[in-house]
Amino acid sequence: MARTQNLSDAIGEPTTKVVARTTLYSDIDLSFKAHPNTGDITTLRDAEAIKQSVRNLISTNPGERPFSPTLGSRVRGLLFELVDSFTAISLREAIKEVLLNYEPRIRVQEVSVIPEEDNNRYRISISYQIITSLSTGDVTFYLERIR
């Protein structure tokens, strides 16, 4: 293989500059809002991208994504069970399992599932640590059936 040499290479001056990356993770924003300056779809970076990924993994059924038949959790199936503490335990285990298997960027610290029987929903709180930056994050949302 041939190598080309610039004039600066011959003189001995460095031609490349090592720069630390400021963004480790990026993903498109699924709200599909337009960027105010460019008009393109906005992107989420680092912690916000991970939060979106956690929500998506929990709400995805196994077999729903093409070419990834095992990706997803059994959370949606559990939403049609009685809203009680037994189902909350099953939900917590299903959430831990999907995050352990499919989200390698985080280490789950705590998953809290609180049943709200009167509203037929669960309050989900997930605390995690981002492995690359050692910062912590949390996601809180409600799971409820819509039919």
**Main β sheet profile:** 3 strands, antiparallel
Average pLDDT level: 85
Q: Class by helix and strand content?
A: alpha+beta
CATH architecture of the domain at 48-63 and 72-147: Roll
Spatial separation of the terminal alpha carbons: 63 Å
Strand order of the largest sheet: 3-4-5
The ordered string of helix (H) and strand (E) elements is: HEEHHHEEE
CATH class of the domain at 48-63 and 72-147: Alpha Beta
- Spatial shape: globular
What fraction of the residues are assigned to beta strands by DSSP?
15-25%
DSSP E strands, number: 5
Kindly describe this structure.
The protein has 147 residues and is of the alpha+beta class. It has a domain at 48-63 and 72-147: Nuclear Transport Factor 2, Chain: A, CATH 3.10.450.40. Helices cover 27% and strands 24% of the residues. The chain is built from four helices and five strands, in the order H-E-E-H-H-H-E-E-E. The strands form two sheets. A three-stranded antiparallel sheet has the order 3-4-5, covered by helices on one side. The longest helix has 18 residues, at 85-102. The N and C termini lie far apart (63 Å). The mean pLDDT is 85.
Key traits:
three-stranded antiparallel beta sheet, Nuclear Transport Factor 2, Chain: A, two-stranded antiparallel ribbon
Secondary-structure topology with pairs:
Blueprint: H1 7-11, E1 26-28, E2 43-45, H2 47-59, H3 75-78, H4 85-102, E3 106-116, E4 121-130, E5 136-144
Q: What can be said about this structure in brief?
A:
Helices cover 27% and strands 24% of the residues.
